[in-house]
Amino acid sequence: xxxxxxxxxxxxxxxxxxxxxxxxxxxxxxxxxxxxxxxxxxxxxxxxxxxxxxxxxxxxxxxxxxxxxxxxxxxxxxxxxxxxxxxxxxxxxxxxxxxxxxxxxxxxxxxxxxxxxxxxxxxxxxxxxxxxxxxxxxxxxxxxxxxxxxxxxxxxxxxxxxxxxxxxxxxxxxxxxxxxxxxxxxxxxxxxxxxxxxxxxxxxxxxxxxxxxxxx
Length: 216
What we know:
By secondary structure, the protein is α/β, with parallel strands linked by helices. It has helices at 11-21, 59-72, 92-102, 150-155, 167-170, 174-186, 199-213, and strands at residues 3-8, 29-31, 47-51, 78-82, 108-110, 119-122, 125-128, 131-132, 162-165, 191-194. The strands form 3 sheets. Strands 2-3-1-4 form a 4-stranded parallel beta sheet, covered by helices on one side. Strands 5-10-9 form a 3-stranded parallel beta sheet. Strands 6-7-8 form a 3-stranded antiparallel beta sheet, with no helix packed on it. A hairpin with a 2-residue loop joins strand 7 and strand 8 (131-132). The protein is globular and about 45 Å long. The model has no long low-confidence stretch (mean pLDDT 88).
């Protein structure tokens, strides 16, 4: 089984993510800075978490950090999880682009809801505390996040084609979801954003997508 590497753009996100995967007696390595991580260090654990420290970095610096990291490892040895902020702070589009350009990965699926914290995605819009992201107060932190429609947010940082799949299509079942995804991929979309409003939505999407696309 492939090892798992999760990359977060700040230390809080990295440690929070690690806490979900701690089980039994086996610990998890949390690397504090992606610039100091080599492929040999990643070989010691089944699961590693890396802080890229790019949340507040400039777009070009964030790109270079992610690009250089993937060029330095044999990325096909790992399953990759890229943790992103539910308020889309940071350099999400630019970092996805860096991964594409430094690897042969050709698709990115974004599932960025935490229903237990009242953070969900509906019709491609990020909703936090019942309000669209652009009205939820997070834009005071980083002013460029002034939209709520996730594809528009991503498009501000990358030219990679982005689309969204809404709950009305997801609720039609597994076969319909896979068929729709196939159509989106044939149309040339590289980033697909999924709606999700409940934990059950997330589990259904993950199970459906992973079984079909786990070799990407």
